[in-house]
Design brief:
Keywords: Hydrolase, Membrane, Protease, Transmembrane, Transmembrane helix. It is found in: Endomembrane system. Its EC number is 3.4.21.89. InterPro entries: LexA/Signal_pep-like_sf, Peptidase_S24_S26A/B/C, Peptidase_S26, Peptidase_S26B. The chain folds into two domains: 2-45 and 156-185; 60-145, Umud Fragment, subunit A (Ribbon). It contains three helices and eight strands; from the N terminus they run αββββββββαα. By secondary structure, the chain is an alpha+beta fold. The chain has helices at residues 2-45, 147-153, 157-185; strands at 51-52, 55-59, 74-78, 89-93, 100-109, 115-119, 131-132, 136-144. Helix content is 42%, strand content 23%. Helix 1 (2-45) runs antiparallel to helix 3.
Length: 190
């Protein structure tokens, strides 16, 4: 009988610990998403490319780099990188506009100025114009699928407020739920 009670306590204790870990991970993910959302929204509202430290954030808007990156992915670009070689995936802006492009370097021509020939992984031909060093923003270091859709959505003012409000309400409700459970068990008193 005592063994059964001990085993049930161990299971209960393990279950509680696992629940706390899962709850903590969920809260951390919500907080990180809120921070990422805030950084992205503030950058976009200021008319700048959103960045965190030396990493600039871009939303993939086409499938030219599929299957590496799909539309709606968020990519982080190391803006401090200055050395590039064949096979690197870079983000650049041509002189003729402010539209960024993220493609793979397929050829490098060194001379008075270094020129890079790029191509999207899903494209059959190289891009028509070479990319010069001063047009390169940096090398892609990370891709997070689908997050770009969320960040694109928050560019709308009401969505930005909702994405701050919803996680805040979820966290408050979570805390209230935990307090209510402790009150029911008699471990807390008012």
């Amino acid at each position: 009988m005592a063994e059964i009670m001990n085993e049930e306590r161990k299971k209960s204790s393990t279950h509680k610990m696992l629940k706390y870990i899962v709850d903590a991970v969920v809260i951390i993910m919500i907080v990180l998403l809120a921070i990422l959302t805030a950084v992205f929204a503030v950058g976009m509202r200021n008319g700048e490319q959103p960045s965190l430290f030396n990493y600039k954030m871009f939303i993939v808007r086409s499938n030219s780099m599929s299957p590496e990156f799909k539309t709606g992915s968020l990519i982080l670009v190391d803006a401090g990188e200055t050395e590039f070689s064949r096979g690197d995936i870079i983000t650049y802006i041509k002189d003729d506009g402010n539209l960024s492009t993220t493609h793979r370097i397929v050829e490098v021509y060194e001379g008075e100025t270094t020129r890079y020939i790029t191509r999207g992984d899903a494209n059959e031909i190289d891009d028509p114009l070479p990319v010069f060093e001063d047009e390169i923003i940096g090398r892609v270091v990370l891709s997070i699928p689908l997050i770009g859709y969320v960040l694109g959505f928050i560019q709308k003012r009401w969505a930005f407020v909702a994405l701050w409000l919803v996680p805040s309400v979820v966290i408050v409700l979570f805390i209230i739920r935990e307090i209510m459970k402790e009150l029911e068990r008699g471990k807390l008193s008012l």
